[in-house]
């Protein structure tokens, strides 16, 4: 579908409840507390996840901002065991090449504390795989192409929305980026205009699931934030 426009037209901002500064801060801190429990896992339960939950999370991803509102993304949600097995086989083939000499030693060393390897059983076990595609161009109703702008940034924002929605729905996810990923275009039967950028394995954690100790180390706020303000806050 193309996003057709006929020129600028304003519409009122949808109403939201008015909040005090104290309520805003409390909401921000509550959201941080919820997201602070998000961790990438590799050990999934085979407990089913209703399709409606996945659809609601992807609908949330579709609310992300995008360059010129072109929404240059597409998500393929897969629960079919046969297709998941094909994706695992193809992904592991690429991963073996990566770990057996395709990647520089520095990259392999950086991954060592995370404990990754060529085997990807989560691609079979997780009840859902969501393949994220970036749409490099759009197509008008007459078949002509038009350029999409800020595609990587837009798709990154939508994927962040998706991961947050999945977590707040009580699910866990693993981001997986085999390289190259052309096999996903073929297996998911997507057009040449779309480039696969990520697989999200989605489901419930297995009993006794663990996370790498290194992944629990997050940069403190003072390392990721610079404030430039006209006022100097005193406490």
UniProtKB/TrEMBL annotation:
Keywords: Flavoprotein, FMN, Oxidoreductase. Residues 36-204 form the Nitroreductase domain. Coiled coil: none annotated. The keyword Flavoprotein applies. InterPro entries: Nitroreductase, Nitroreductase-like, Nitroreductase/BluB. It comes from the Bacteria. The keyword Flavoprotein applies. Gene3D superfamilies: NADH Oxidase. PANTHER family: IODOTYROSINE DEIODINASE 1 (PTHR23026:SF90), NADPH NITROREDUCTASE (PTHR23026). This is Nitroreductase.
